[in-house]
Amino acid sequence: MGFKFDISARDGRARTGVIATPRGEIRTPAFMPVGTAATVKAMMPESVRETGADILLGNTYHLMLRPTAERIANLGGLHKFMNWDRPILTDSGGFQVMSLASLRNMTEEGVRFASHIDGARHMLTPERSMEIQRLLGSDIVMSFDECTPWPADEKTARASMELSMRWARRSRDAFGDIPGHALFGIQQGSVYPDQRAESAEKLRAIGFDGYAIGGLAVGEGQELMFQVLDYAPDQLPEDKPRYLMGVGKPDDIVGAVQRGVDMFDCVLPSRSGRTGQGWTARGPVNLRNARHRDDPRPLEAGCTCPACRNYSRAYLHHVIKSDEIIGSMLLTWHNLTYYQRLMQGLRDAISLGKLDQFVARFHADRAQGDIDPL
Amino acid sequence: MGFKFDISARDGRARTGVIATPRGEIRTPAFMPVGTAATVKAMMPESVRETGADILLGNTYHLMLRPTAERIANLGGLHKFMNWDRPILTDSGGFQVMSLASLRNMTEEGVRFASHIDGARHMLTPERSMEIQRLLGSDIVMSFDECTPWPADEKTARASMELSMRWARRSRDAFGDIPGHALFGIQQGSVYPDQRAESAEKLRAIGFDGYAIGGLAVGEGQELMFQVLDYAPDQLPEDKPRYLMGVGKPDDIVGAVQRGVDMFDCVLPSRSGRTGQGWTARGPVNLRNARHRDDPRPLEAGCTCPACRNYSRAYLHHVIKSDEIIGSMLLTWHNLTYYQRLMQGLRDAISLGKLDQFVARFHADRAQGDIDPL
Residue A19's domain is classified under what CATH number? Predict the structure, then answer.
């Protein structure tokens, strides 16, 4: 049960270290690319690994509907199915049920809903979520919770948090203890410090292998999110990984790492890659813009990804405008490479005790904006 | 001017050899994957090379409209633009103008048309086609012709063939003589042996570095196509490459190689890959079919492509049904690998003087049909 988490260095509230799992090490702070339906869209898994990713995220909601958890289990588990032998974290399915499914009915027991694919009726409960994640063979299983909607008044936030804590207990009981697999609890409490503290206390009492900070990145904005992160991570156990779910943009990640967060996931680098947005040290670049159409320069000088090594901005512009699949392939590859380079930079800076300088440089580079047009 | 074409072995009317170009050797019989808009759809060019492709085809019509030949020339040519440093053959644009553009008006001078992308008016003539292909940096340039529509009565076919021969002359004159680049003529004449002979004679008189057999694979069916191939290749110079444009299915290629054809191109393996069809020695397999959804076996046992090495039919079925980009990537990769394996098999068989046995085995394997369901 659980994994060894070695924190090798601290700088302010930030930490860097390694989570050791039977399927390989996860260097923290870690960014997890999202492989929703058993694929990181437009990427071969070996390419995802080449970008530096130690762990992927899979979505329970999508996989339970198609191809189903039982089918994946019969085929040898999610790792074998999607040809990724390193760690996989799966979410609980709760968040996506609330954002994608229809005819939802939430009760104490769980959530009934209709599939967005074929309308079939399903039910997710803490017990069913644990069963599905176990069938998938997930290395890091997330407890089933309600992601408290934003905005929520104190009373609504409390009711939601308390329900999630009861579901956390049921998740823990249903998960039991699986050697080599970890269960993470999820803190709720919206933007209310006392509720966050109470949620953290309840999770500690149950006991998890890691702790997520839930209910953020749901529309509250970076300023409010950072206000919560000014205290929420420190409410969680110091010796366990802290995971900020669904975050985020590069500057969100940098600010959260400064505040003591160890793990992140977000669809942003892959999704925006498919729409022609490239992320660089100097900020986002819209390759659809006509200013790139004659530009022989790479998207980001010095980047080691194939998009930057082998192609011009003019080519990227052309294939994106032409809706060619290679446009999605190349920009996703670049964006995931950029994100992993950012994480490596953060880890190195923390190790050297130079996080402040790194962050100052990060913001200075972005302030420059993209390279000048030709 | 032109390339050295060494025929190393013959078996019946079939030949195997090597076309030596400054950008690398082309082993014949050769299959050229189609990279319409400066990309073989859903493939990285290094992966296309891994399948065994020695040469790609690019489409003049698409590239002249977007990003334009002038832009590609300014960026250093098509090879650099699309990161493919081996030979590229470009078509003349004529065929696609007739199948894709609107408001077409064909005269002795050439074809006026409106772009299918933005409606802009353009004109393609033999001279403009040569200029565009030269700007692209094409290694093998095709002369500008009219692909005689099917069916065509003798009179219509003759008028079309004679126009194409006048355009062949103008293409030759406009192309001139570019060291390290070759110009191919295109035989027309529909299904009329005397017209095919006359067309071949006119092309020989002009003198080309290679000869294509045009006006086939346009709806006439395999039986009629093979009837033409029973005599047409032998009307062309023995010591130059013979290229059957737009062909085809594996059994089309096998039959054409038996009849003396050296080069092929077709969108089939890439296009059908994107719709879930896998080509194997035992025939085409529709991966969308539900019979694959629990099948842990590879698409084709023994195949060296990533789709077969690392994934089950169940996974391929899942990602295709889910419209995931990796489905297009994996099936295109497999199909191009299968096509190149077929070409290698044909080359080896001709070298060994065992083409008949190879073809018998080819048909026997296909007659078996796909592997039994689980």
Answer: 3.20.20.105
Domain match, B245 and B314 both: no
Chain B residues closer than 8 Å to A71 by CB: 293-294, 314
pLDDT in tens, A274-294: 999 999 999 999 999 999 999
Alpha helix stretches (DSSP H) within chain B: 45-50, 60-65, 69-74, 78-82, 94-100, 126-136, 154-175, 193-206, 222-229, 232-235, 250-258, 268-274, 306-310, 313-321, 325-352, 355-368
Residues B152 and B214 in one domain: yes
Does A84 lie at the interface with B, CB-CB under 8 angstroms?
Answer: no
Report pLDDT for B122.
97
pLDDT of residue A1: 53
Report which residue type is found at B243: Y
DSSP A178-231: -TT-EEEEEE--TT-HHHHHHHHHHHHHH--SEEEE-S-SSSS-HHHHHHHHTT
Residue B211 lies in a domain: yes
A158 within a domain of the structure (yes/no): yes
Domain boundary among B212, B232, B265: B265
Question: A374 pLDDT band (50/70/90 cuts)?
Answer: confident
Task: Indicate whether B233 and B293 sit together in one domain.
Answer: no
Residues A235 and A281 in one domain: no
The CB-side HSE value for A102 (13 A sphere, CA atoms) comes to 6
**The complex's ipTM?**
0.98
The answer for B 322-361 residues in CB contact with A (under 8 A) is 322, 324-326, 328-329
d(CA A50, CA A334) in angstroms, rounded, equals 11
